[in-house]
Design goal:
The protein is an all-alpha fold. It is built from five helices and no strands. The longest helix has 20 residues. The protein is globular, with a radius of gyration of 14 Å. The two termini are 18 Å apart.
Amino acid sequence: LTLLDAVAANSEVNRMTRQSLGTILGLALLRKPVDPADTAESVLRDAKKASVAVSTLLEYFSQLSEALED
């Protein structure tokens, strides 16, 4: 997450905001095993949840890391 936080901090140059990183990396980091019975709707719903989770982690990363250091 430290690297992703640094990337997001330079979003004016690289256009990779926390939301963009969440969208791109959410499923890669938080994907559940694929079930053939899953519908397209459930897969998209899971993708959105993963995206929001990663974006939120990045949004609060500096606060979380400071609290863990204390």
